[in-house]
Design goal:
287 residues, alpha+beta, Uridine Diphospho-n-acetylenolpyruvylglucosamine Reductase, domain 3, Enolase-like, domain 1, four-stranded antiparallel β-sheet, 12 helices, binds flavin-adenine dinucleotide
């Protein structure tokens, strides 16, 4: 990396970072934990970009609980998600996603904001954030805007973040104790693996009627972006989760995913696994 070919800024506050983004516009690439950035820069991506390092912007490092939601600063790391009692209690899929993320060294640096903005269809926190109805606060020097996570991704590595904006906060719904929720990652190994399929599910069952009163299902690595499975959710809503209904839902989920074949798995295998994992999570209450 030639030092003469780029400028490097280190922001210690959000206003500082936003000012630099405002002044430099297209030329700047944000650097948080650097776990994606450094690999991608070595591969030749972002060579023409100046770097704005936000790792030391401590005001973006928080997990706060208020009313029915939780606010997370974009600089929150995977380790911090794992250690948080609030996340364990009210956002279990996100806790579980962080637990199976990479390796201890990476979890210590990898941020939630970086995982979202890397916009990989296999990003492990993303299905969890989808079922937690995450909203993303995108900030520029002039204004903040809130975007539901399902609108944020335009394709692999493409988002609607503008060059003068950064992600500052993620707001998620708290799952009350009546919800059962889960996350599962199928990879080639148990650690440091990119997901072949990852899946988050949360559901609320009425204790008297045993019917499903809310269900959210989200898949990663089976479409150009992480997706919800709305038709499968619709099939299960207001029904009792019998074995035959769960089997039907698994078939429906297969028709909602559109995976590709790559070095990790074939499209057919991903489709099969999308169905099997859904059955597994719906039949086994692992809470
Ligand atoms: C060995 C290894 C194992 C990995 N394992 C996994 C895994 O198991 N699961 C998984 O999902 N990922 C994995 N990753 C990918 C990576 O660790 C994650 O995507 C991580 O969350 C990125 O966070 P970061 O802070 O390091 O981001 P960075 O590398 O600093 O940035 C990533 C991208 O996000 C942008 N960005 C960062 N912060 C912001 C912000 N606040 N606003 C706007 N844009 C921002 C950057 O410009 C860049 O484009 C792995 C990577 C490596 C190298």
């Amino acid at each position: 990396m030639s030092l003469s070919s780029f400028s490097y800024w280190q922001a210690l506050s959000v206003p500082d970072a936003l000012k630099i983004l405002h002044n430099e516009q297209q030329q700047v690439k944000l650097l948080a934990g650097g776990t994606d950035f450094t690999v991608q820069r070595k591969e030749g991506l972002w060579q023409d970009k100046h770097i704005l390092d936000i790792w030391k912007t401590k005001e973006l490092d928080y997990i706060r609980e208020s009313g029915k939601s939780i606010q997370l600063g974009a600089r929150t790391t995977m380790d911090e998600l794992i250690d948080s009692a609030v996340i364990r209690k009210y956002a279990k899929p996100l806790h579980l996603a962080a637990c199976v993320f990479a390796s201890p060294q990476i979890r210590n640096r990898a941020t939630l904001g970086g995982n979202i903005n890397n916009a990989s269809p296999a990003g492990d926190t993303l299905p969890a954030l989808f079922v937690l109805n995450a909203k993303l606060k995108l900030s520029s020097a002039k204004k903040d805007r809130l975007v539901p996570i399902h609108e944020f991704f335009l394709g692999p590595r493409k988002t609607l973040l503008q060059p003068n904006e950064m992600l500052t906060e993620i707001i998620i719904d708290k799952l009350d104790p009546k919800y059962q929720s889960d996350f599962y990652k199928l990879g080639e190994r148990n650690a440091v693996a990119i997901a072949i399929v990852n899946l988050a599910v949360c559901r609320k069952i009425d204790p008297r009627s045993h019917k499903v009163t809310d269900i959210r299902i989200s898949y990663g690595s089976v479409a150009p972006t992480v997706i919800r499975a709305p038709q499968t959710e619709q099939l299960l809503l207001h029904q009792t989760l019998t074995e035959s209904l769960i089997n039907k839902a698994a078939e429906r989920a297969q028709s909602e995913v559109s995976p590709i074949s790559d070095v990790r798995a074939s499209a057919d295998y991903r489709k099969e696994m999308s169905a099997s994992l859904l059955k597994f999570l719906l039949k086994n209450n692992r809470s």
